[in-house]
Amino acid sequence: MTTSKKVAIVGAGVAGLGAAGYLYCKGYQLDVYDALPEAGGLLVFGIPEERLPKKGVIEGIEELKAAGVRFHLGMRIGASALENIIATHDATLLATGTWRARSLSAPGANLEGVITALDLLVDNAKYRMGFSTNVRRLYGRVGIMGGGYTAVDAVIEAMKWTDQIYVFYRRTIKESEAHAEWESVSKKGIKIFERSLVTRVMGTKRVEAVEVWNVNMKGNVPEFVPGSAQIFPLDFLLVAIGEERTPPDCVDKLGIKIENGRPVIDDNMMTTRRSVFAAGDLVTGPSFIGNALASGLRAAKAMDAFLRKG
Ligand SMILES: Cc1cc2nc3c(=O)[nH]c(=O)nc-3n(C[C@H](O)[C@H](O)[C@H](O)COP(=O)(O)OP(=O)(O)OC[C@H]3O[C@@H](n4cnc5c(N)ncnc54)[C@H](O)[C@@H]3O)c2cc1C
Question: Does residue 304 fall inside a structural domain?
Fold first, then answer.
């Protein structure tokens, strides 16, 4: 059964694609928009092939394309484009995820060679997939700050360039959501320093070393172990200390209320603008593949109910 109703999805990550699959089966005409040159979001451009083979995801996307879902790729949607999308569709889903990597606020964080891990992963994924000719090359001693999935994946990327890898994590690997993934990479000779916090990046133009303290975390507050500072010479520091939600720019001007970076939604996942819904990491903050998919499906069901009511 097809309907004449049109649905737009902004953000073709797992949440947006899950919603697209569901709404396609319900017969809606779908337009899916994404800033990247291919759909898939973090599954395709963030998580490396070694951990998540892209073939299955790309095949799923190709099926949707072949079925008539219209993908508009390489389009970063801002407020005016979004207003137009909302006006020309019966319902719109925002699923733009968490694409702003938190940057380091320690002294020296602006030195060359200090890179956010997410940017490194995405740029090198684009290069390997043939979408870009720019690759970020690493060499020498590479430090990685963080202990979550992004840090693990930064290690996997760094291992393609060097075998001198040092991980500094303020908690213990056991406490990380990615502890199983750490087990497999830690067998490969990288050095992991737990309860360790980078407090200063040293160098003149480029990073030359970092100062690291041993800490005990009291909630989110580090308690520094007196006299524990050590200096580690480094050529790169990859910063993987979290990501923040990225709704399309200036959406609040369109009547879509944002509080602390998060779109305000009701029980049906509708934002403060009628017919505009939100799902995935954009709503929850950095999460997991399964949660983002479930959230996309929940929003799709709510959109279907909304569209049926008329
Ligand atoms: C490096 C890394 C590794 C991870 N590993 C795991 C793991 O092993 N297991 C696990 O369960 N979870 C993992 N996660 C978390 C998981 O990937 C996410 O929770 C999930 O993919 C989020 O899906 P999403 O659809 O909400 O967002 P995303 O996948 O981020 O998709 C959002 C999409 O919106 C697009 N977009 C953003 N802004 C705009 C705009 N203005 N206009 C148009 N398009 C826009 C983006 O290009 C992107 O394609 C990992 C996360 C990272 C960063």
Answer: yes
